[in-house]
């Protein structure tokens, strides 16, 4: 049993070395964000390592792409859901003043967002504010703060995760 696990891990390690760039490229083509594509690629290989069924070199590649496809679908669903929510709140926020219940919900969500931002490290909070509330692009923020584009993307991604977790806990 242990020898089987070791050889399976060796297969996954070999696949990682040989096909990681291809799998990441596949994911990148579908989602369009490099940082997220790297994260999803790592998740593919983590799931392969945790998989208990014995895999062969032939089935391993197919299984890796199946995992990648499912993770891409999950990512796109979450991305669409968050875009719809942001679009809803951005279009309905000014009109909420006539409906007390909507205004209360909006105020609670806004308070939750402010509390989450207050708990973030200063740099991450600043980048999130510039991106989400001042509508600056990643490149504009990178230039303004003297940081790399990748660093800005990582802070935004991390801030969104923090906010989603806060929202999940609140609901």
Report what the structure shows:
The protein is mainly α. The protein folds into two domains: 2-79, Rna Polymerase Sigma Factor, Chain: A; 99-170, Arc Repressor Mutant, subunit A. Helices cover 85% and strands 0% of the residues. The chain has seven helices and no strands. The protein has helices at residues 2-31, 34-50, 57-92, 100-119, 122-133, 138-145, 149-170. Helix 5 (122-133) packs across helix 7. It starts with a helix and ends with a helix.
Question: Which structural traits does this protein have?
Answer:
171 residues; mainly alpha; Rna Polymerase Sigma Factor, Chain: A; Arc Repressor Mutant, subunit A; 2 domains; 85% helix; 0% strand; elongated
CATH class category name of the largest domain: Mainly Alpha
Instruction: Extract low-pLDDT stretches.
Output: none
> What value does the average pLDDT take?
83
**Approximate helicity band:** over 70%
Return the string of H and E elements.
Answer: HHHHHHH
Query: Sheet bearing the most strands, described?
Result: none
Q: Quick one: how many beta strands?
A: 0
Shape: elongated
**CATH architecture annotation name of the largest domain:** Orthogonal Bundle
Terminal-residue CA separation: 43 Å
Structural class: mainly alpha
Cα gyration radius (Å): 20 Å
DSSP summary: helix tally:
7
Tell me the β content: under 5%
Look up the CATH topology of the largest domain. Answer: Rna Polymerase Sigma Factor, Chain: A
User: How many structural domains?
Assistant: 2
Give me the secondary-structure topology.
Blueprint (H helix, E strand, L loop, with lengths): L1 H30 L2 H17 L6 H36 L7 H20 L2 H12 L4 H8 L3 H22 L1
């Amino acid at each position: 049993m242990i020898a089987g696990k070791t050889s399976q891990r060796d297969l996954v390690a070999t696949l990682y070395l040989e096909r990681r760039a291809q799998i990441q490229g596949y994911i990148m083509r579908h989602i369009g964000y490099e940082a997220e594509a790297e994260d999803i690629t790592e998740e593919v290989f983590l799931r392969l390592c945790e998989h208990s069924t014995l895999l062969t070199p032939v089935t391993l590649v197919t299984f890796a792409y199946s995992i990648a496809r499912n993770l891409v679908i999950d990512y796109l669903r979450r991305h669409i859901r968050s875009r719809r929510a942001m679009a809803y709140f951005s279009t309905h926020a000014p009109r909420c003043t006539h409906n007390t219940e909507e205004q209360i919900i909006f105020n609670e969500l806004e308070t939750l967002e402010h509390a989450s931002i207050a708990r973030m490290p200063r740099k991450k909070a600043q980048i999130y504010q510039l991106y989400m509330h001042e509508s600056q692009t990643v490149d504009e923020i990178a230039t303004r703060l003297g940081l790399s584009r990748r660093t800005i993307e990582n802070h935004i991604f991390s801030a969104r995760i923090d906010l989603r977790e806060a929202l999940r806990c609140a609901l």
